[in-house]
Specification:
This protein has about 260 residues and is mainly beta. It has helices at about 85-90, 195-200; strands at about 15-25, 25-30, 45, 55-60, 70-75, 80-85, 100, 115-120, 125-130, 135-140, 140-145, 165-170, 185-190, 210-215, 230, 235-240, 250-255. It has two domains: about 20-40 and about 50-145, Thrombin, subunit H, CATH 2.40.10.10; about 165-255, Trypsin-like serine proteases (Thrombin, subunit H), CATH 2.40.10. A hairpin with a 2-residue loop joins strand 9 and strand 10. It is globular. The two termini are about 25 Å apart. Bound molecules: arginine. Arginine binds near residues 172 and 214.
Length: about 260
Amino acid sequence: MALLTRRALGTARPARRILGTALLGASLSLPLAASPASAVVGGTPAPAARYPWLGAVGSPVFFVRPAGQFCGGALVGPDRLLTSAHCVGLLRDLPGLLNVTFGRDDLAGKGGETVAVKSVRVHPGYRETKFKDETVPHHDLAVLTLARRVNRPVVAVGSPGSARTGRVAGWGTTSEDDLFNTRLRDAQVPLPGDAACRRAYGASYDPADMVCAGSPKADTCQFDSGGPLLAAGRLAGLTSWAYGCARPGYPGVYARLDSLP
Ligand code: ARG
């Protein structure tokens, strides 16, 4: 149950509120309990013009968020947006229900441009396993073909290489408790390396198709999925999953892009 599903974040946090149900059979649930120190967590407001290739993936059926936004995505060709497979899995055969908005600082505002989606391709290796209460998406990549070409710069895809820090951006929540952030934010995040993520997640972390980033000070969170992890100015990963947000010992996990088929 991938698309539009926001699972509550772990057994340590029992209090949770169901915000919406019966959305294409998926449910949206977010926790209400107190969260670890945080604020994208640890970020600052960013002008959308800083990320002209960054799209907000949304759908009018996702009425609980302005612009129906539930994920991010990165423009890699004039009509090609990379996003997470878990963002669009359930809508792959209903691409007409998806749209992408570029250039909007705050989803609650206007501005920027919104483009319809023509088709969805999900990575053939996409599958889901479990880590505690979290769904672990493997090969969490999808390509959206837009209904028209947009006149915007594309982002170059790369490998994290030996980078020690990266950058993340998104319209997602600023902590595990924040239900309502709609402002684009970005943050610098450490890249702690595969060993750190193996320690956290064991075999759920697959270094062949994942890269980990983040700390208790800065991390991505819900509704940031599909958005960028930049390393040395290149798109090195897409926000995918983690155990909660910004929890000590549990970095964020990103789908690697240098293993694209
Ligand atoms: N699965 C989340 C989403 O769909 C992204 C979670 C990332 N979490 C993290 N702590 N880095 O928006």
